[in-house]
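sry for the spam today, last one i promise. struct tokens for design, 111 residues
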């Protein structure tokens, strides 16, 4: 699979405890992106953060949170990301979704 030099980055901010059909939402999003043949996805777990509720979530031992911030990044051509958005919207009950243009410098193994 090749990626165009100019692509789109989809970034999804959710809480670790969010679910979709009984499984972790971040796992469901990545599995769905893979099933739809998007170029790739990465899940990042944050040690601290807050969102719309302004409730602080952190790994500090005195205020240990089980609902840490999760960021999912997916990069692909704009059309494929745009086609994925309605599916993503149906999976999410909250969170933040952003899009930005990116320049792909390398995708896959160096030949």
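last one done:
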């Amino acid at each position: 699979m090749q990626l165009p030099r100019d692509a789109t980055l989809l970034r999804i901010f959710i809480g670790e405890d969010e679910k979709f059909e009984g499984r972790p939402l971040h796992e469901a999003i990545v599995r769905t992106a893979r099933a739809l043949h998007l170029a790739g996805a990465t899940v990042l777990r944050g040690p601290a953060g807050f969102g719309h509720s302004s409730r602080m979530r952190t790994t500090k031992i005195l205020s240990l949170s089980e609902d840490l911030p999760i960021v999912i990044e997916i990069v692909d051509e704009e059309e494929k990301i745009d086609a994925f958005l309605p599916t993503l919207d149906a999976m999410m009950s909250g969170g933040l979704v952003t899009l930005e243009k990116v320049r792909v410098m390398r995708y896959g193994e160096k030949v």
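The chain has one domain: 6-102. ok im logging off now
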